[in-house]
Every structure is written in C-alpha cells, then in structure tokens.
C-alpha cells in the first residue's frame, strides 16, 4: 500500500482448484518490490474464490507488514484472520472467513554488482576485431578499416567507447586483443584468433590506447580474407574463464568484445561455444559495424528467445548482447557504452549468485548498485 493510499500489485499466487483448505506454493519476491525496503509498510492480502467466467468471488482480506511476516522464520508460523468487511458489518456472530497461515519466511541476500567489484572482482576485458575482406581494402577511404588522420573509424569508435569504461574495472589495465579472418605473416595463413601485436605468448596491450596502437600497427601487415568465424575466439576466452572457476571465488569476470562487419559464417559452432560459455564467468558483447544486414545476429542475443546449441542444449543464462553501431553513429560515446554494457552488471550478479559465490570481502559502506556506467 503506497503512501498516497493507492495500491500496487506485488504478487499473485497460482489458483488452487477444488480445495477448501488450499496450500499455495512458496514464491520469491524482492524486498524492494514487496515493501520498498520499509518493513513497516502496510501490505494488503486479498483472497478470492476463482471462477472460470472471470467473476471471482471475494472471500476476505487482511493487512500485515514484512516485519510481521518475518515472524515465520526459524520454523515458526504466522497467521491472520481473513475478514470480509461486508459480512462483518451484517452478521453479529461473524468471526472470519478463514485463517491464512504463513508457514515459512526466508531472507536471501542478493549481492549487487558493486558488492562484487568492491570485493575485488576484476573485469578481464578482451577485444576481437574482424579483419575479413568484406571490410574493404584499408588503403581505400571507403573501407571500414581506413585510418583517417583526423577521424577514427567505426571500429576505433566502438573500441574506445566500450573499452574506456571497462578499463576502470581492471586494476592492471592490460587487455588481450585478437583479430580474426585475416592472413597473417610470415606464412600468411588464415587465422581466427591471432594476437594483433603478433605476440602469441603475450597478446596483452597496455590500456585501450595500447590496443588502438596495436590495431593501427598490424593493419598494413595483414591480408584481409575470411570467413567470419568467431567461435575460435569465444572458445579461447572461455578457456581462461573455465580456469577461473577453479578458484571458487568472485575474482575475475571475463568480457569479450567482438567487433564485426557482417553476419558470422560459423553459426552452429558459435551457438555451441556460447552455450558452453554461459556456464562460465563470462559475457560476450558483439558490435556490428557498417551497414550490413545483421538480422541473423539477433538470434545470438537471447532477448527474443532462448539460444540453443545445435544439439538442443539451452544456454544456462543470457550472456550475449548484440548492438549495431549504426544505431549510435550520431550519439555520444557514452550512449554507445551505456547500451553495450547495459546487461553486464546483471550477468555478473546472476552468475555469482547462481553459483552461490559471495563477494570476497563485501562492505556495507557502499551503496549497492547494478550499474556499469561512465
């Protein structure tokens, strides 16, 4: 019940059919949704007799508070008389229309994104850049990889906008950066997971500026080729994320940023890789650059349905966010970063809460937040 006397629905139970002593299933609701964090806020519970024609019969109601409901913790029960005001006013001997019993109340602390960050969880940010021939010859001003002396191309804009936010959550600010879809020196064989600094033993670059410099330096040495396969780079990062699970701690969470100009050609392998990665401390962000038709890419983003592997195995959780860069061509870098990173805090929280992993050293000093923003 709101301060202005209006009412807001918090929860509706299932219907228990043909039973004069119904027992409803337990349910979960956040304290914020239940009472806006105020344990003394009045809560109204209304009981109806369901009717198939939609004209449900009012049985009765009662009010309580979250503070009262917490009395059902530690094996105790709390009960209320369900009152029908109309019957109470008309009948002298009316007591109630039944008793509602709360058998159990449990409080589960849900740690926030900020709890994990303040507890020492590091965001391990990895970049993967599309160097397939469909981008166009980098020496041509029409190419998506063209290096203009004064204006960054779309790859650089997306990289800097997202990377500069992520680097604030990484203490050493060293970022692995890979390319895919190009022929690389010295043999000029096609690779789908090469280090853009050409140091396979240490693919890390110092800060986002280091990634930018490595990108600009490697471009003249590559032969753009194809196809557009991203499963190998997802598998590479997933291997590191898998090793992190052995710690059983909230130490490192991996974000893979994939920048690509077209629809991927290894969709089956990519779906398989994403389903596997959904069990790991990892998120995948795909930014589509250029004007290609990215409609097929939306299937990797589980917003419209559940992504499944070719064998039918569903993702454990939604870890992919796809954003077409053209939607933000005239927006600020902050707007792009906000959209691209919008789902990451919840993905971090959902992974660790789902595994029952608490922050390494949570602090009550900091206000909880689920926001990753500039």
From TrEMBL:
Keywords: Calcium, Metal-binding, Repeat
GO molecular function, one term: calcium-dependent phospholipid binding
Domain called C2: residue spans: 1-81
Transmembrane segments: none
Pfam families documented for this protein: C2 (PF00168), Copine (PF07002)
GO biological process: cellular response to calcium ion
One Gene Ontology cellular component annotation held by this UniProt entry: plasma membrane
SUPFAM superfamilies (UniProt xref): C2 domain (Calcium/lipid-binding domain, CaLB) (SSF49562), vWA-like (SSF53300)
Entry's family note: Belongs to the copine family.
PANTHER family: COPINE, COPINE-4
Protein name: Copine 4
């Amino acid at each position: 019940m709101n301060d202005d006397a209006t009412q807001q629905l918090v929860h509706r139970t299932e219907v228990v059919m043909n039973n004069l002593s119904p027992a409803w299933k337990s349910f979960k609701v956040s304290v914020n949704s239940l009472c806006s964090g105020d344990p003394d806020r009045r809560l109204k519970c209304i009981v109806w007799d369901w009717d198939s024609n939609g004209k449900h019969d009012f049985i009765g109601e009662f009010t309580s508070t979250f503070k009262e409901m917490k009395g059902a913790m530690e094996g105790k029960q709390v009960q209320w008389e369900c009152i029908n005001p109309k019957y109470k006013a008309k009948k002298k001997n009316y007591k109630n229309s039944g008793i509602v019993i709360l058998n159990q109340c449990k409080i589960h602390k849900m740690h926030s994104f900020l709890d994990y960050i303040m507890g020492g969880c590091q965001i391990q940010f990895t970049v993967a850049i599309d160097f397939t021939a469909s981008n166009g010859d980098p020496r041509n001003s029409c190419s998506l990889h063209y290096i203009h002396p004064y204006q960054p191309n779309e790859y650089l804009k997306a990289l800097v906008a997202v990377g500069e936010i992520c680097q604030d959550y990484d203490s050493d600010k060293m970022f692995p950066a890979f390319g895919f879809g190009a022929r690389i020196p010295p043999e000029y064989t096609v690779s789908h997971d090469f280090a853009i600094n050409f140091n396979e033993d240490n693919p890390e670059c110092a800060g986002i500026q280091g990634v930018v410099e490595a990108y600009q330096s490697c471009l003249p040495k590559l032969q753009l080729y194809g196809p557009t396969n991203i499963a190998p780079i997802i598998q590479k990062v997933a291997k590191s994320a898998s090793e992190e699970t052995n710690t059983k701690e909230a130490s490192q969470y991996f974000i893979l940023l994939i920048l690509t100009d077209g629809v991927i050609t290894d969709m089956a392998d990519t779906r398989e890789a994403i389903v596997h990665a959904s069990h790991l401390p990892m998120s995948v962000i795909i930014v589509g650059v250029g004007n290609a038709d990215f409609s097929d890419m939306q299937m990797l983003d589980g917003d419209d349905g559940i992504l499944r592997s070719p064998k039918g195995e569903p993702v454990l959780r939604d870890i992919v966010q796809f954003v077409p860069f053209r939607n933000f061509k005239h927006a600020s870098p902050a707007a792009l970063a906000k959209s691209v990173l919008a789902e990451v805090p919840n993905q971090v929280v959902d992974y660790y809460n789902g595994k029952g992993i608490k922050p390494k050293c949570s602090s009550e000093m900091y206000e909880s937040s689920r926001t990753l923003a500039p």
